Prior knowledge:
Layout: H1 4-8, H2 40-46, E1 68-70, H3 71-76, H4 78-83, E2 87-89, E3 94-97, E4 105-107, E5 116-119, E6 122-123, H5 125-133, E7 137-139, H6 142-148
Amino acid sequence: MVSRTKKLRGSRTHGRGKKHGRGAGDRGGRGNAGLHKHKFKWMIKYDPDHFGAHGFVRHAATRKAKLSVNVGDIEDRLAEFGLKGAVHKTDAGYKVDLTMIGIDKLLGAGRANLPLEVIVAEATESAKSKVEAAGGKVITTVQEIQKGE
């Protein structure tokens, strides 16, 4: 069977007319060309959300990462926290103020062996239960700190 190209050899336009086969003219431009003009109805039907902003972006520069520490790490780092003035010895055990050294959250990994009174902005339920099981307590908000003093 003879190919179409072979048949049309010598015909100059290969049956496409004068400008039909040049560049991307047959399809109305390349890519997204014409979406506000001759391809507008196509865009409305098949890609209606093509233009405009959608959703929002929380830029990393505006977000503050929360610093956290595990229950098990507090006992290991008591000396380090003490040098920063965040640890005070009490009759029952130790009072540790994590907000003073910039730690925002207490996590529940590890064991609590000493009775600790921990002051922190946030704490997980498992962290609270472990500290309380060791004979300590977790104070999580500014209002509770003021009530306790």
